[in-house]
Specification:
five-stranded mixed sheet, methyltransferase activity, elongated, about 280 residues, alpha/beta, rRNA processing, 4pyrrole_Mease_sub1
Length: about 280
């Protein structure tokens, strides 16, 4: 593959930018921004400041969620002979930011793709939270509509993992209250303005945090970290009997035992034996 005079081979360079402090831009990322033939950005006004910090005078091309397909196709065409840097407004491109279609189509076209790792608000907030980090799920922004939001929380309520959400200040208190209702009142953390002058992280239960922000919606970029569910208490013999009696009013013994086993996390064979005793 022919190397360009700029020193960068043709292809797509996914550049992680700072989420706040400009000093977090890596030397390698700064070099790519100085050498790339073109820089694809979400907002030219936002990215211009970072390019100046990196000492870059490279031309910018807007690329965001509302870009026409033709913009993406032209960028992919340019990658055949030019270096294209992809830069989001903050943090790592593609993480709750546009770009995955560009990467997907560039890969399908056989273009060279290089990623320059760096800051991510989701991971930074997770490290600040003091909550389990061994298993986590990034959820992006919760839906704005109440029904869709409740369905989203119900889908992951039983998942034994720490959950990561982005949220806006005006919606934060309501969203935290909905999480407490849909996920249970778990331990959580709210981080805002990470790596900036007014960075803060507040911890507590979801209901406590919802109350904290009810009358004082915070400003800035916000990440909510929600701890995994606690261990469910073991069902008692009385609970199992009551569930079996209720289920046998609707179902044959075998199916009733299976339903209760799934619901209470108990052994199906033992429940079947007990169900036969209760029926007798």
């Amino acid at each position: 593959m022919e190397t360009q005079s700029s020193g960068l081979e043709p292809g797509l360079y996914i550049v992680a930018g700072p989420i706040g402090n400009l000093g977090d831009l890596s030397p390698r990322a700064a070099e790519v921004l100085r050498l790339a033939d073109v820089v694809a950005v979400e907002d030219t006004r936002v990215s211009a400041r970072l390019l100046r910090h990196a000492g870059s005078d490279r031309p910018m091309v807007p690329y965001h969620d509302h870009s026409a397909e033709g913009v993406r196709l032209r960028l992919i065409e340019r990658m055949a002979s030019e270096s294209v840097a992809l830069l989001s407004d903050a943090g790592t491109p593609l993480i709750s930011d546009p770009g995955y279609k560009l990467v997907r189509d560039a890969r399908a076209a056989g273009r060279r793709i290089i990623t320059l790792p760096g800051p991510s608000a989701a991971i930074a907030a997770l490290t600040l939270s003091g909550l389990p980090t061994d298993r986590f799920l990034f959820m992006g922004f919760p839906p704005a509509k109440q029904k869709a939001r409740a369905d989203t929380f119900a889908e992951v309520a039983a998942l034994r993992a720490t959950l990561i959400f982005y949220e806006s200040g005006p919606r934060l208190s309501e969203s935290l209250a909905a999480m407490a209702e849909g996920l249970g009142d778990r331990e959580a953390a709210v981080s805002r303005e990470i790596s900036k002058a007014f960075e803060e992280t507040q911890t507590g239960t979801l209901s406590e945090l919802s109350a904290r922000y009810a009358d004082a919606p915070p400003k800035g970029e916000i990440v909510v970290i929600v701890g995994p569910p606690g261990e469910a208490p073991q069902a008692s013999a009385e609970d199992a009997d009551a569930a079996l009696i209720e289920a046998m009013e609707r179902l044959p013994v075998s199916k009733a035992a299976g339903e209760v086993a799934k619901k209470l996390g108990l052994d199906r064979r033992a429940l079947y034996t007990r169900a036969m005793e209760l029926k007798g």
